[in-house]
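User: Hey, my collaborator sent me this sequence without any context and asked if I could get a structure. I don't really work with proteins. Can you help?
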Amino acid sequence: MTDETPEHPLFARVYDPVTGLFEGRMEPHRRYLSRDLSGSVLDVGAGTGANFSYLKISGAEEVHAVEPDPHMRRQAEEEAEDLGFDVTLHGDVAEEMSFDDGSFDYVICGLVLCTVEDVDGSIGEMARVLKEGGELRFLEHVGSSGVTRRVQEAVNPVWRKLAGGCNLDRDTLERFGDCQKLGEIEVERFDGLPPVDPLVRGRFRKS
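Assistant: No problem. I've predicted the 3D structure and written it out in structure-token form, which is a compact way to encode the shape of the chain:
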């Protein structure tokens, strides 16, 4: 674990009411992350448990989730209890997880890498805990171009403080290409809601 565990109590309280306004647009992406799973699955950066209802019907036999913020994790525990969903929650950060090498058949990561301190370290950890031939699925918002990019860069310092450390202008997709253990299966781009635009989602397989 890192020395400082992120805690955002106010952000945790308002997260569900705010994101609930847009959850209808996120539903197909969450279904993408969780469709046709099997075996053991890790949900990285589970937040308040937004993926749990989808993971419950995904076909996964065993589900673990990591969420370092204790306030978000408490809400995720409540969500799992309300759903009757069997998931084991951990307080690990994405950059340093307490699982053995090759522990999971699937790792899913939804709107997480915008907030982590070390993107490369987090991707490397997700690749490490995947089994050989295992699949990493991700959904992220990334930095745009042109006028939207300039707006993102201008407002990002304030946005980070208000949005629990989220960065608007990260070029996250390119960082996956730096992880030699992961081979791309597919990557798709979608319109977001400026300044959170565009969205990218995709799948990688551990070679």
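In plain terms: The longest strand covers residues 130-141. You can pass these tokens on to your collaborator as they are.
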